[in-house]
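Progress against Task 2.4 (sequence-to-structure conversion) is shown through the following example record, which the project officer requested during the mid-term review.
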Amino acid sequence: MDPYKVLTEVVKAQSFTKAAENLYTSQPSISRDIKRLEKRYDIKIFEFNHSKMNLTNDGRKIFRYALNREQLEAELWHDLKDQPNKVAGELTVGSSYTYGEYKLSQHLTDLASQYPDLHIHVRLDNSETMIENIKNNTIDLGIVEKEIQDHMINSTRIAKDEMVLIRNQSKPSNRNTCFIRERGSGTRVYQEIGLSELGLKPYLVEINNTTLIKHMVHAGNGFAIVSKSTLTPTDYQVLDITPLNIERYFYLLTHKNKYIDMNLEILIDNLQHG
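Structure tokens generated for the chain above:
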């Protein structure tokens, strides 16, 4: 039996025997639990004067702790049981740049309107960093741009995408310069596949932001291979866009030992079907 609960009952009943009756146990069992606390903290909890039982100074400290502990447990039960359907709390989502900048916002907007008490924090970085964050359990859920095989991670496809070649329509463009994402980016893998299939070996300029890459192409400074999902109406007006027949998927990642509570389940369902 919980010795702190036993202590609380003994103080309330002012009797080991009465406390045993209230807790449906034996008086020797009550005595053993009190002695366990005394041994744990190397103190004396009760003192007796003419058969009257009083708490020692140290005993009063432990009793206050026991009462606070009892109150916290009551609040926990209230949160877990009395409001089982309330969606509230905080989640941390890590996303690679492409999905985070161009696709995640709509999901977050939908969730915010449906569940105003669910607060979602977002961290953007490249896919390799997201994978490490999942493995270290520093984020609740990750979204990356490439398939991975890792015994510590559950991976699920959530959205389809394709790669396109972009050049400026009207301005003379440097055909020997290609703007490309940094190593570790999921997009970088597919950019290299595209260059290989096109038989191109341009000068590569690494930029860790797809929006900036598109700005460079808009300015006629070179070309790029980007995700079709990153294109805006303005891009379609200004750029020459060539499909490359290179498909890819975005993947939702969770740690294999992650406890999927109701909040996280709602977020996952929204990302998979929203």
